[in-house]
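agent: user wants the full assembly modeled, not chains individually. Plan: 1) parse entity lines 2) check alphabet per entity 3) run joint structure prediction 4) return tokens. Steps 1-2 passed, two entities, 636 residues total. Proceeding.
--- entities ---
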Amino acid sequence: MKSEHAWLRALAPSLGASCPSLLVGIGDDAAALVPPTDPIVLTVDAAVEGVHFTRQIASLEDIGYRSFMAAASDLAAMAARPVAALSSLTLPPRFTEQELEQLVAGQRLAAALIGLPIVGGNLSRGGLLSVSTTALGACPSPRLRSSARPGDRLWLAGPVGLAAAGLRALLRGLPTHAPALRACVEAWRRPLARVEIGLRLSSLPCALIDVSDGLAQDAGHIALASGVRLILDADQVLKESGSSLQEASALLGEDPGALALAGGEDYALLAASSAELAPLGFVPIGQVEAGEPGVVVLRGGAPWEPPAGFDHGEGSEP
Amino acid sequence: MKSEHAWLRALAPSLGASCPSLLVGIGDDAAALVPPTDPIVLTVDAAVEGVHFTRQIASLEDIGYRSFMAAASDLAAMAARPVAALSSLTLPPRFTEQELEQLVAGQRLAAALIGLPIVGGNLSRGGLLSVSTTALGACPSPRLRSSARPGDRLWLAGPVGLAAAGLRALLRGLPTHAPALRACVEAWRRPLARVEIGLRLSSLPCALIDVSDGLAQDAGHIALASGVRLILDADQVLKESGSSLQEASALLGEDPGALALAGGEDYALLAASSAELAPLGFVPIGQVEAGEPGVVVLRGGAPWEPPAGFDHGEGSEP
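--- prediction returned ---
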């Protein structure tokens, strides 16, 4: 097996070109970077075999790609620009060089798409495949969950529910000839952290979160952190998620509303800001009210209870 | 089970007081920090059950403590001052709240000793216990492995071999009444990343590395990165490691030279710098020469081949 550093270097084929902040790259005890003038944003996210993914439905490239995007999405959720990432991999026994190459190819693809270069990491042996990604960003004024105010409008950037529909199609082994199902599977396999859209909010006062666990649940985080009541209009959410979700839901025999409100891993962005100014790339899906912190979902104008939140489809987190 | 955020908060009981750089702490999508004016140093290290530790010989508090120190030591090895850390935990099934509390207590203790506050993290379920620690530091001029020059002297800060001796005592289930063995077990259970000593080198031109895998092996990293030949004097190294290592080696029936040169996880610091100026806290243990990159160990004045490097005692890394 190649050395740890050889593998880490494979993560970063053209490091100098892709990370203008880099002072010291892979090969020393740590990476070193030019300090940003703006506040630093720092996050870590882990994807563990059997909990966040199974190799039955995801290729190793998918696993590398998706785990990286999940971490990058936390930068988007703070309205931060990407600076650099670290990758900590735990590889099961008998994991081959070729398999590692596939995993790394997925990470590299995601890193290139987001502009978040991998500048270091760690490689260990262990029982289950696990990918832990540290993402470092910078932002003049990080956007928080706690900034929603009564009177604000709720804004959504990106469709929701597609990734959950795609995951269900994969778990059931459904053929994905139908374009709608194929689009949903693609949404699950190749989500895009909405870093560019998040950056547009860095100068707009707002509350911001990424939709990783499900829209209703993530809206609940804003409600709780801000001490407000969020009214979500499921019909407007469904309109934003388009015809693919409608068609895929029909093929799956699932309620599109449940998929859109409780399905995670689309990495849409949910913002709460002034009702007067629509942030570019966002559509209105509800409003913020004073009251007992929580989320009310309206469907056809009447309160509606979405499912408690799908899990990741392969296990559960604490 | 408590929520992820409740647990992460338990990692950081008095966050505001302990992290002067903190702008946004646990509870949002990411942590936010005042940017340092000096270059950023960033590293990640993972400790995985069955590879880096077993619960037969280490308490959960030990595991939390040691994994954190291993990451912090990479900051010391760059001569960086600690800024903030993230902790990504994967917990096996049936891992209890009480067990998590013990693990977290060890992390918290290490974080307090080093002054490296935990400002965020991630909690997942998974097959094996695993602790991945991201450490962020800052340094006006990060010290590299590649800066050793022919004519430099080699300097060591801290004893080596004690942790390896302690690990062997634990693995063999030896009683640790003897003060020397007890000191070695303590060196393994409660190593201290030499951050303060590393900081003294931030204004001294030098090559620097921490001794995590074994002195001869880590010296090899400097030799290779700098393109130089390192001459290590095992007798001087043994003098620095003191009588505890001699006595413990006798009780273990091991060669103290082998433990000192090939035993890891003491987190001593190895520097190469001008022969004229002894850096504070370091003792001379050899010199740097031009020639084929590599390490020559002298013992009793003659070349001596230390063992290829002990593994961690519980498995192997790739």
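agent: reporting back. Residues 4-138 of chain A form a domain with the 60s Ribosomal Protein L30; Chain: A; fold (CATH 3.30.1330.10). Chain A touches chain B through 73 residues (CB under 8 Å).
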